[in-house]
User: Fold these one by one.
Assistant:
Number 1:
Amino acid sequence: MRSQSLFSGGFVLSLVLLFQNAPRAGELVVERTTYHGWTNSIRLSNGEAEAIVVPAIGRVMQFHFIGEEGPFWENRALDGKAPDPKSAEWGNFGGDKTWPAPQAEWPQVAPRAWPPPPAFDSMPVEGKIEGKTVVLLSPVDPFFGIRTRRRIDLNAADPVMTITTTFEKVSGPPRKVGVWVITQFKHPENVLAGAPISAEFPNGYKLQSKNAPRNLQYDAGVLRVERDNKESHKVGSAGGTLFWVGQRVAVRIDSPRVADAEYPDEGASAEIYTNPDPAAYVELEMLGPLQELKPGDKLERTSRYTLLRKSDENQ
C-alpha cells in the first residue's frame, strides 16, 4: 500500500488517503451491458475498479471500486428513460458530461438559457469500443455546429480513469467556446480545491453565487466547502485539481490549467457547485481555455479521475 498526502493546511485539511491494494497488472475488460434499464451500455473493468458508460444519455454514469457503492450521483428516478431534446425541463440524469463554456453565451446561440444545448446534454450518442477504449460521439449540435467526442480509458493497474473530451466544429459561424466537464457526485463530507493566488484570483477564489458555500474555508492555497441542504452555492478558482471526499472513499480530478490562456467565468478553470435538497449532489467542474472554432477546427481537454481510500487511521 502507498499513502498520498493530498493537501496540508492550518485547519484540518490534511487528509491521508491510500489505495487499498498495491498497483498490480490487471486484465482490462471492456464489454456491453445493460445498466439501470439502458441497453447497449458499456462497462470497463480492471478487476479493482470499473467505469460505466451509457451512450443512450451521453454520460459516464459511474466510476467506483467493484462491489462498492459509487461516488457519482445518479438520478434513479430517470432509470432507463430517454432524453428529450425538446423538453423545457432539464433531464438531470447525473454522472459525468460536457457542455460548452461559457454558459452566459447560450441564450445568444441556442437560443435558450436553459436547458443546455441539446446535442451536448439531451440526445443519445454513438458508443463505440475501440480496443480497450470507449468512444462517445455526439450528433452535431444544431445551434453551436459542434459535435463532441469523448475517449474513456481505464488504467489496467490502478483505479484511474481518463476522459479526453474533444469539440469538433462542423458547421455554422465561428464560435468562441471552451470545453466544460461537469461531474455530479453524491452528498460529500466536503469538497476540496487547489486554489492558487493569481492575478484573476487575488483571494484564491471568487464567489459565483450570492452567498458563500456552507463552512467555506481557505488556507494555504486550499479551498474547502460543504453542501448546504437549503441553498445552492457556487465558487470558482484558478486551480486544476478538485477532490470529492466521502466517508470512506475520495475522488481526485486533475485537469491542469493552461498558463496565460483566456478562461470563461472571470478566469475560472475549476468550479464547485453545491445543490440543495431534495437532489443531494455537488458538481465538480473543470473548464478549459476559450478558443474560437471555425469549421474543421478542434478543441481538446483531458481530465484524470483517481479513486482513493481513506487510511484506516482516518476512517
Number 2:
Amino acid sequence: MLPNKDFTNQPKEFWADVRTIGQAVGYTVRGEDRFKEPTPTEVVQAYDSIGLSSDHLVRGGKWVEAGEVIAAYMSYRATALLSQVKPVLMNAEEAAALYEERKAQLSPTRQPPFNKQTGEKKQIAYLTALVNMHIEAEIGDLPCDYDPRELTAITRAGRPLRTLARRVDGAFPSAVNPVAIWEIKEYYYTTTFGSRIADGVYETLLDGMELEELLEHTGMDVRHYLIADAYLTWWDMGKSYLCRMVDMAHMGYVDEVIFGREVVDRVPTLAREWVETLNQRSSNG
C-alpha cells in the first residue's frame, strides 16, 4: 500500500491532530467492521474532554480548511483499509498455500526461515519466505542480507556516519550502507494482541525517525519498508494499529507498507528498483 500523495508532506501539527483524534474519539466502531470517521461535533467534544482547543479544526459546528483535510484523510484511510488491506490479509493456511505455489514457480535456492514458536505452531515463516524468494528471483547473484545480525550502519570516508538503534529483518545489499531495509511482522499463530506486537509497530517508527534525520542532515536516503500479515492479528484484533501503519507511511517514516498477498506483486517491483539504484551508486563511484 503506497501512501496517497494527497496526504503526504503534511506538517507535524497535522499528525498531532490525527493522533489526538484517534486517542480521544477512537479508531474503530465497536462491534462493527469499519473505522471511525469523526464528525465536527465529535471532535469538538473530544478536544473539550481533554482540555484542548479545536478552533483550528471546527468553528460553528463546521470544519474549517484544516479540519476538512483531516476529515478527508480519515475517510481515505477508512476506505483504503477496507478495500485494499482487508482483502489481501491471509491466515496461516492461505499463507502456506501461497508459499507452496510461489516456491513451485520460482524454485528458490535458499532454505526457508522458521518462526520462533514451538510445537505445532513451529512452521515456516511463510511471509518472510515469500519476501526472500521474490527478492532472490529478481537480484540473482547480487548480495542481500536476508537476516542481518548487526545494526544498520551508514558510513562515509571509512567511518560510521549513523548507526541505527536496532536490527532489522532484511537489508539490500547489506546492513552497511543499504539501499533498502525492511521489517516483517507476521503473526499467523498468535491468538492474543499483546504489547510485543504493538511494540513491533513502534520499533519500525523509530527506524523511520532515524532515517528521516539521516536524510535531513546528510542527504543520504535509505528506503524503508514494513511488511505485515495475519488476518486475525491485524484485522480482528489490531485494526487501530493498521491505522497507525497507514499514518506512518503518510508521515514518511516508511516508503510503503506491504500487506499479505501484496508481496507477490510489490516485492519483485521493489527489488528491481533496488538493483537499479545499486547500479547507479556503483557507476557514480
